[in-house]
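Q: What changes when zinc ion is included in the input?
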Amino acid sequence: MSSDPNCIFCKIIAAEVPAAVVYEDDSVLAFLDIGPLADGHLLVVPHEHYIRLTDVPPERCAQMASVLPFLGRAVLEVTKAEGFNVLLNQGTVAGQAVPHIHFHIIPRKKDDLLGYRWNSGKYPEGRAAQLASAYQAALARLAS
Ligand code: 5GP
Ligand code: ZN
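A: The predicted holo structure follows.
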């Protein structure tokens, strides 16, 4: 199984660095984020060291995603949150600080002041159709 000796999450998976672990199975570990955005903020990581989501084989990705409903129910119960955000940052430009891919589960409560900018835009005439075609062509190529 791939592991990086310099990776903090690989060290947590190997139990070389302590973490407040909440769940583990054959392929996934979930533990409390050391710098929580909210009380009970979890990280969900694959055992194998993948830097990017786009490197993760589909079956591994499915294993990671499959625990989200289960962990999400525990987050709601334990933190008494009314909802949560599932977040994955890929790339430093997107805020990825730890180069071992991970989902965040961030509990949310009304008026928690967490917030984030969601500055939605509007497509000019034709742009959405152009993008949809480009995506379809790229996906057809990537799937072959
Ligand atoms: P990213 O910015 O890569 O999406 O998120 C990395 C997260 O990992 C951050 O929220 C940060 O607080 C958390 N983190 C970094 N180092 C450690 C650590 O040693 N232990 C734990 N439990 N979380 C960590
Ligand atoms: Zn790692």
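Observations recorded in class: DSSP finds four helices and five strands in the chain.
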